[in-house]
Amino acid sequence: MPETNLVSFTAMITGYAKIGDLDEARMLFDGMKERDVVSWNVMIDGYAQHGRPNESLILFRQMLKARMKPNEATMLAVLSACGQVGALESGKWIHLYLGYSSMSINAHLGTALIDMYSKCGSLEDARMVFDGIKDKDSVVYNAMIVGYAIHGFTQEALNLFMEMSQVGLHPTDITFIGILSACAHAGLVSEGWALFNLMKDDCGIQPKVEHYGCMVNLLGRAGKLEEAYDLVKGTSIDTDSVLWGTLLGACRLHKNVDLGEQIVEFLHGLGLANSGTYVLLSNIYASTGNWDGVARMRAVMKQSGVQKEPGCSSIEVNNKVHEFLAGDMKHPKSKEIYEMLKQMNKWLKAHGYTSQTDAVLHNIGDAEKERSLEVHIEKLALAFGLISTKPRTTIKIFKNLRVCPDCHAVIKLISKITGRKIVMRDRNRFHHCVDGLCSCGDYW
DNA sequence: TTAGGGTTAG
């Protein structure tokens, strides 16, 4: 019976997609003689949920070409994919499509739209969707609060949090992740502690490792390293030592070698030090120019085989997302991009810019450091943005890791020189650069 | 057989 075949195939695809074996799922999907909307959805959502949002969007376009009508589940999956890659134009198209279809924007779709718009850098659109949702629940509020948080609108996030209780909605554990990370971006230490205690004592929400992560990050960035250290020592729920990693990151930021070494020794004694621990200690050494220390850590790292996620920057131009990888020469417009890069460096020099060579964590000469900074992928994406968009328009760039301080400074200055607004999303948050200044206030 | 929100680290 063909129908049974369709459902059982889809069930198998679901199984493979759930465990993240998308290639196996895709083989089954491609082999199906007939597909219904659910089989498409399972595959599209599988990509979206497992870090392959671009493939999710490509498959969605194929679905439309095959004249298969998407339903609400399809839209939820593709909106999430748009948010992940920062595909604002595609996201807007989907929003329009929803208007023409029979689907009404309920709390589920509304949440997905808010999430998409805020991750694509358009907080105004996110807020408009939020205001238009009639049956708002806690999840809708959470999406908007997190949106404000990643854009550095701390006060707005806190206002919405207060509004939630006024309208009779209870905050969830994710609400607190949102507002605590908002506090971290603004350095609001006492407010953060107050909210953390409110969550435990008044709302009866047991803090999870994620909440401790927010607190350690908040305290660590604000320079309260000992306070953060005590907090981590006092908790036993850190199963994969992320909190220690956060704390070591803060030691690097504040160039605190002593505490960094102390922590690594402590972890080593407990058998908790892993390859990531040594990467972080190596970075702490590098931040103070202790190249012997760096060399020692590199040797340890080599033995334990550290893997670092490769950096990638992207930009959406004319509905297409262009990706840049380190030292990338593969882009068809490579020549023009490098020409623009040269031009940018001339502008920067003329404005008295000196590159921040301490952003380079290797022991190489200063001239070489300058050269290695010049081709950082954020700058390649920015150069491409400058040559392929109209003057005065906003440029949006996305990076999968944190932006380095040198690129941050360059992007700020280029915004001033070209009179362009440049919006950048990195691992942690959004940076809105206008006329030489950034919304993060250089605190990130 | 699908279905909204998630911090921290390299």
Automatic annotation (TrEMBL):
Keyword Repeat: yes
Keyword field: Repeat
Origin superkingdom: Eukaryota
Residue stretches making up the DYW domain: 352-444
Record flagged with keyword Repeat: yes
Start-end of each PPR repeat: 5-35, 36-70, 137-171
Gene Ontology biological process terms from the UniProt entry: RNA modification
Molecular function via GO: RNA binding; zinc ion binding
Family: Belongs to the PPR family. PCMP-H subfamily.
NCBIfam families given in the database record: PPR
Stated name of the protein: DYW domain-containing protein
Species assigned in the record: Handroanthus impetiginosus
Organism lineage string: Eukaryota, Viridiplantae, Streptophyta, Embryophyta, Tracheophyta
